[in-house]
User: What shape does this take?
Amino acid sequence: MFSLLMQVLIWDVETQPNRHAVLGASTSRPDLILTGHKDNAEFALAMSPTEPFVLSGGKDRYVVLWSIQDHISTLAADPGSAKSPGSAGTNNKQSSKAAGGNDKTGDSPSIEPRGVYLGHGDTVEDVTFCPSSAQEFCSVGDDSCLILWDARTGSSPAIKVEKAHHADLHCVDWNPHDVNLILTGSADNTVRMFDRRNLTSGGVGSPVHTFEGHNAAVLCVQWSPDKSSVFGSSAEDGILNIWDHEKIGRKIETVGSKVPNSPPGLFFRHAGHRDKVVDFHWNSSDPWTIVSVSDDGESTGGGGTLQIWRMIDLIYRPEEEVLAELDKFKSHILSCTS
Ligand SMILES: *[C@@H]1O[C@H](CO)[C@@H](O)[C@H](O)[C@H]1NC(C)=O
Ligand SMILES: *[C@@H]1O[C@H](CO)[C@@H](O)[C@H](O)[C@H]1NC(C)=O
Assistant: This one.
């Protein structure tokens, strides 16, 4: 029995235009199936920015690594072998579907893992690659651990950080500009920043800083692709916060710290969602634009909301400059808001 939730499916958008939408058809055929999980793998998924490697984590506590190259090499060595080497349980269904359509290639091919990494004691909630190496990656889970792995040295943890937070960890992100900095978000409502050279103290997690600006579980953290000290965090409280860790301890913060009694480092708060902000991404070609999605199931009776929004550049310029500029528009702003 195969559950689709145990497989990772790869789609090639270049080949998909040939697959017309068919009314009433329930599924479309993926280009590649990655097998290896023994239980649901719903939350943790990442692709390496440097190599065609895919990483996933699941309820089976596994962190699983695949190389799409394994599939490409098989095709190059034997073009006739593009058929599925596995997935026996789904063969009949897949073939009969293919026979009815105009797709002659048959089943989706599948590949097995390059490695399965064991070290978590509970569900793996998120995984991420080191931005400079597809052999190094890290994972977080419901066991409150942050684990760093190195595929070159084996399948047990390279470094295991116990009690990285006071509750389940939901998300992790590795700084693309400074590979020593790793962010984690947790059900303890905080975001923590770790330095990988100094992850633990006395065996438990010793973050460089703990960011406290949410009043519910943190669901997603993402470093800015543009500025190495800036990142965002979104949470079940419906808030998406933007932080700059370099502003911690500085006297002058930007005008964005309009947030009353804002915690150190917080300089912008997006409160436009009505419910849990489950995921977001920075637009890499437009540095201050973010796309965020909320799960509005309970507040609107179903569905979700996707928002694309941009922080005005005012929040990132020196305070005096911004105040001088705002002064010119004072009457306009007052009439708009009254
Ligand atoms: C590592 O972290 C500990 C605990 O936060 C701190 O006392 C120590 O100075 C740090 N060491 C370095 C080399 O940063
Ligand atoms: C990302 O930024 C680029 C450049 O400004 C723009 O063309 C594109 O539409 C943006 N994408 C989204 C999803 O906002």
Observations:
- Confidence is low (pLDDT under 50) at residues 81-106, 253-257, 333-338.
